Amino acid sequence: MERLLKTGQWKDLPMRPGFGSFMHPTEDKLMLIKQLGVDEIILNMYRNNLIDTNFDSLPLPGDHQWEYKDLLMLRKTVENAGIRFLALENMPFSFYDKIMMGQPGREEQLKHVQETIANMGAAGIPVLGYGWTPTGVWRSSTTYPIRGGAQSMSIDLDDFKRAPLSHGRVFSEDEMWDYYQYFLEGVLPVAEEAGVTLALHPNDPPVPSLAGVPQLFRSFEAYKKGMSMVESENHGLQYCLGNFSAMGENLDEVTEYFAKQDKLVYVHFQTISNSLVNNTKLNEVFVDMPGYYDPVAMLKKLKDVGYKGMIMPGHVPKIIGDVSWEERGRAFTIGYIKGIIASLNHDN
Q1: For the CA atoms of the chain, what is the radius of gyration?
Q2: Which residues contact 289 (CB under 8 A, 6 or more apart)?
Q3: Residues in the chain, pLDDT under 50
């Protein structure tokens, strides 16, 4: 089946701003997003304390898979507010934790993931973003002070050295790659039949290992390997610029390489102070502060390579008056992104 991302309302869209990093499409959130001039969102189904996710409930029920009727209703809720629903980002770990770690019961989990992907396609949701991060996302702090006392997320790798083993033993790179190949071989044929595109997020932070578990997707070369293990047009990147910056990669080179393969599904646009190459510490910064990359040059590069997907603020600093979703910080970031895109379009 043709990829949903290439048909219907998604066909011929330009490079554009969007919002994500929240779970519940409440009336207030959807209204705010529309008022800010944004017409597209991603909903994040990963329970953690780093972004606006509700620990008490998910907008999609189910401990093992998502059902068609629930997916359809969620899409309609978003679309009734005049907003496109691009992707579901991050399945609950209970959907595929045994698959990631090669544990008994992974065959049953794989069947449920396959059904979830098929249901997403039938419900008209074109993208499933996922992470291969059995140890989760790690931070040292979410209150690191930056400009004017704004609070950002920070990492100090020394803080993680004494972490206990998360899964009872130390795992090898080879076995983790084997588990990943098992996953790809099981889900990509289903995604192709359903028209759903899968988008892989980097490990966060992108370091060799955490709590005894190798972090596979920590480099440009690892991404090349991951994208080539099972060839499919329905597999690509959640292109998280914050994590690729932390890797110390040449972002122009990465962007050009994966754009040529049509692997850039959508972009997490967040800026950080520095890479983790020869450094143990970093912190996230405002989009207009000096950081690892120049936001204007980065957006120009994306436009130059013909990227026509969504660009969303990833993590943003929390400023005075912000609540759970950093609404003010996100409004500032999206305005900055929109201004750059408008300028680039004007120049042409």
Answers
A1: 19
A2: 146, 147, 271
A3: none
Q: What is the DSSP string of 37-53?
A: T--EEEEE----SSSB-
Model pLDDT, residue 54: 55
Distance, CA of 46 to CA of 241 (rounded, Å): 19
Alpha carbon distance, N-terminus to C-terminus of the chain: 35
How far, in Å, CA of 61 to CA of 49, rounded?
A: 20
Question: For residue 46, what pLDDT is reported?
Answer: 77
Class of domain 4-347: alpha beta
pLDDT at 215: 98
Question: What does the buried/exposed string (b/e) look like for 243-267 if buried means 16 or more CB atoms within 10 Å of the residue's CB?
Answer: bbbbbbbebeebbebbbeebbbbbb
Tokens 């890797």 map to which residue?
247
SS3 assignment, position 73? helix
Per the document, the length of the chain is 348
CB 258 within 8 A of CB 266: no
CA contacts within 13 A on the Cβ side of 134: 25
Which pLDDT does position 51 carry in this prediction? 64
Q: What is the pLDDT of residue 58?
A: 82
* Distance between CA atoms of residues 343 and 231, nearest Å: 37
Can you read off the two tokens belonging to residue 338?
């929109």
Q: What is the pLDDT of residue 336?
A: 97
pTM of the model: 0.96
